[in-house]
Amino acid sequence: MSTTWLDDVFATKKPVIAMLHLAALPGDPAYDSTGGIAAVVRRAREELDELQAGGVDGVMVSNEFSLPYLTKTEPITAITMARIIGELLPAFEVPYGVNVLWDGRASIDLAVATGAKFVREIFTGVYASDFGLWDTNVGEVARHRARVGGADVKLFFNIVPESATYLAARDLAAITRTTVFATLPDAICVSGATAGAPTDAEALKVVKAAAGAVPVFVNTGVRAENVGSQLDIADGAIVGTYFKKDGVFENRADRTRVEELMGEAKKFREQLV
Q: What family does the database annotate (predicted)?
């Protein structure tokens, strides 16, 4: 496996993918039934405009405000996300992916239904998490992906999940090597403890060294001041919280902050030519 698929999808080295965090959806505890889905769509469209105007290389749509998360989502979640993405389709100017937290099968279904190029999820491992005991079945998900025609959907495996601890007594390098060999990820994501939390540079180096030709993305904690040093290790970055107004997770995307980080990312990439 090589990183050429990144070039094909994003047409740039070291792509920066922005998170488009949807407001709470029907069935979620924080859902605003008064504003309804129209309000969710309106906010999503406004934030997509801010992210794309700021120069991001890709966008990943997620139900980030569906807290507390389920490890097997209710059907209404992916169905509503499909409706929202369908309304946004004419506005996408960059490649887009999806993430139905924390449900790999639902994420793949949503990608196939909406034409998304990639998904990010926890596809492997068993964890003790804030959401209970978290078990996965990558073999079942891989077969489901094939059955629904999702072979071209690229899978980002998060092997250091947020809010969870891996139960097996194995080090990060060993987990990376066996994940690559046995489960065939298209990319690997390395995270901090929560959304917006710094990703440990040493952990990122360990995963990069063990991943071989599989691309490695830094998944949380990327900021304008560290994007160059993080991309010096990783093959790309996924950014959510920093792009929000004042860098606050609950706020909306802010074009000024997007431009700031993307300016630094582009300066770093110019050195690679």
A: Belongs to the BtpA family.
